[in-house]
Amino acid sequence: MELHVKRDHSSGGQYPDRARMLISCPDGPGIVAAVSHFLYQHGANIVQSDQYTMDPDGGMFFMRVEFDLPKLDERLDEVRNIFGGVAERFKMEWQIFNVSHKKRLAIFVSKEDHCLVELLWQWQAGDLDADIAMVVSNHTDMQAYVESFGIPFHHIQVTADTKAEAEKRQLEVIGSDIDVIILARYMQIISPSFIEHYRHRIINIHHSFLPAFVGGKPYAQAYQRGVKIIGATAHYVTEELDGGPIIEQDVQRVSHSDDVNELKRIGRTIERVVLARAVKWHIEDRILVHHNKTVVFN
Predict the structure, then answer these.
(1) Could you give the CA distance from residue 259 to residue 179 in angstroms, rounded to a whole number?
(2) Which active-site residues does the annotation give?
(3) Euclidean distance between CA atoms 24 and 82, whole angstroms
(4) In the predicted model, what is the mean pLDDT of the chain?
(5) Which residues lie below 8 Å from residue 51, measured CB to CB, with a gap of 6+?
(6) What pLDDT score does 9 carry?
(7) Among the listed residues 59, 70, 72, 6, the one whose alpha carbon sits nearest the alpha carbon of residue 31
(8) Over the stretch 243-282, which tens digit does the pLDDT of each residue have?
(9) Where in 138-268 does DSSP place strands (E)?
(10) Is 178's pLDDT higher than 80?
(11) Element (H, E) at 40
C-alpha cells in the first residue's frame, strides 16, 4: 500500500474534492492503519494527517485527516456509510466534512466593535474561509457598518424581562443552517436551553487569561493589583459561566506605567487576535473536544 502524505493549507474552493475527517476514540493499535487503508481502498489521497494520544496506555486517541477523493460530492454519503463499520470496530466518534461546503457563521455583538471588525476584515480578505450569514445585536451601533459589507443585521433587544423571548427570536433568525455562533463581545449570558441547540458550536472571547479576575471592570481590577501580564481567552460556551473548553489564549507583558486605558487598548488587541484564531481553527475543523478540554491541530 502506497500513501502520499503532503502538507497543504489552501482553501476548499481550490480543491472541490477535498474532505476532512475528525476522529476521537480509545487509544489502541491499528487505528491509523485502519483509517489510512480505508481511504486507500476508496481511492482517496491523504494530503495531511495529524494524531495525538493522551496516554498510550488506555487513554484517548485523536486524529485529523485531510484527503482528496475524486467526485467527492457524489461519493461522500456512501463513504460515510461504509466508514461506519471501521468506526464501530474502534468505538470512534467521528465526522467527515466536505471542505468546499463553507461553514455559515452568525456573529453576536453588543456595543464594542473591535472583535467584530477583525472578523469582518479577515473575512473580506479571504482569511476566514466561511460565509458570515448574519450579525445579531442587542444594539444598533454596528448596523450601518455591518450592512456596508452586504451582511444582514438583526437588532434584537434584550432586557431582563424579555430575555427568553429575545432568545426565541434569535433562534428563529438563525434558523437551521448556522454552523457556529461567535460571541464577539456580546454582553449577555446565554441560557442553558440556547446552548443545548449549539453544543460546542458557540465561541466566546473572554477579556482575561482564564482563570482570572471575575465580575465587572476586569482591567480596573488588574490595574489595582499591579499585574505584569494581561491576556484573553477564546472558549466554547457551556452552562458554566466562562468555564467551557478553552480553544486559544494569549498574553502580553505590561508594566506599572500602563494605566487602565492603556490596559484596555492592549487587551482589545489581544482579544481580537485570539478570537479570530479560534474561529479560523473551528471552521478549518482543527478542534476536537474531550470533556472540558480541547485538542487543537494547528
Answers:
(1) 40
(2) 242
(3) 18
(4) 91
(5) 32, 61, 62, 63, 64
(6) 40
(7) 59
(8) 899 999 999 999 989 998 998 999 999 999 999 999 999 9
(9) 153-155, 180-183, 202-206, 229-236, 246-253
(10) yes
(11) helix 31-41
